[in-house]
Design a protein that fits this description.
- The structure is a single chain.
- The chain is α+β, with helices and mostly antiparallel strands.
- It has 9 helices and 10 strands.
- It has helices at residues 82-99, 101-110, 115-138, 144-152, 161-183, 199-222, 231-250, 256-266, 274-294, and strands at residues 2-5, 17-19, 24-25, 38-40, 45-47, 49-51, 56-57, 66-69, 76-77, 308-309.
- The longest helix has 24 residues, at 115-138.
- The model is unreliable at 1-77 and 296-315 (pLDDT under 50).
């Protein structure tokens, strides 16, 4: 009884758009969920919509996406405006950098001995808490590599990539300024550099770490067969694992914004390119990898056999 209304790309006449009834109940971060792109926040329903003509799947944030009961003309608007989403990205990235790398800064400043375990735990918990906090508003990307990868996989509007990345960089810089203001030169502990390995080895390690992180993100947050409600827990857990394993070697950045803020405020750009190229390449690798594992566009959640041509699709 629920209908998803969307606007297909201009080149498509919309004739191939199909609409499935609710395939599952959700308690997930909806901007991540793109196998079931239109989710009524009031109805808590998951609906998959795709166009068989142009092989296009609408993503949360696509123009015109909304959900309504077919017997009711009122629509549930799915997406906060861009200003609110960007503010959420600034806030969440601020908290990520202050809580994750900030733990290393505080440990150095106060002489704490909690070590890599404490830093890893703080980093992962910061990610998980921010996904729970603002995931339903902006998606809580907090990471330009994640945003770019979502766009490359057609899970995020390309037009919003640059604003999101700028918001994430701003949040990281503000957190670094705050850490510098409170803890002074100890901010150097948050600047990422390779240790025990050369630059090329560090680059490959950052590619691998980010590929693992992004694969988990895609698995738990964009595939209806996964338990979406646990997306924040799974993503936070993989951050903890990655930092525990390779934090002492590369810093386990996995995030250009996380490395950009401390590097800018500390004025230390040595090796910075590793933490831009590595995470972006790793995230893009994950898009291809999980697309293959998932089975591509042909993989559909149960219930889609009942799909019918959508009468309200707009060209």
């Amino acid at each position: 009884p629920y209908t998803a209304h969307l606007q297909t790309p201009a080149a498509c006449d919309g004739a191939g758009v199909t609409d499935a009834r609710a395939v599952d109940t959700v308690a997930a971060v909806w901007p991540y969920v793109t196998d079931a792109d239109a989710i009524g926040t009031e109805m808590h329903l998951m609906v998959r919509v795709r166009c068989d003509t142009c092989d296009w799947e609408c993503s949360a944030g696509a123009p015109g996406v909304s959900v309504s009961e077919s017997s009711d003309e009122s629509k549930v608007e799915m997406q906060p405006d861009l200003g609110r989403r960007l503010t959420a990205e600034v806030f969440s990235t601020f908290c990520l950098v202050f809580g994750g790398p900030g733990a290393a800064v505080i440990a150095k400043a106060v002489g704490s001995g909690y070590g890599i375990g404490g830093i890893a735990t703080a980093s992962g918990l910061a990610v998980a808490v921010m996904i729970f906090c603002v995931g339903h508003i902006s998606g809580a990307h907090m990471n330009p590599a994640v945003t770019i990868a979502f766009a490359a996989g057609r899970h995020f509007p390309v037009r919003d990539v640059v604003p999101y990345c700028i918001a994430q960089l701003v949040g990281a810089v503000l957190a670094s300024v705050a850490l510098r203001g409170v803890f002074g030169a100890s901010l150097d502990a948050a600047v990422t550099h390779p240790h025990f390995v050369g630059q090329i080895s560090a680059l490959w390690l950052e590619i691998g770490l980010t590929a693992v992180l992004m694969t988990v993100v895609l698995a738990v947050a964009t595939d209806t067969r996964a338990v979406g409600a646990l997306a924040a827990v799974a993503i936070g857990a993989v951050v903890i694992i990655n930092v525990l394993i390779l934090g002492p070697v590369t810093g386990a950045s996995m995030n250009p914004a996380r490395s950009f803020g401390p590097a800018l405020v500390a004025g230390d750009w040595r090796n910075f390119w590793i933490y831009v190229v590595g995470p972006i390449v790793g995230a893009l690798v994950a898009v291809g990898l999980y697309g293959y594992l998932r089975g591509g566009a042909s993989a559909r959640p149960s219930g889609l056999d009942d799909a019918v041509p959508h009468p309200d699709a707009m060209p």
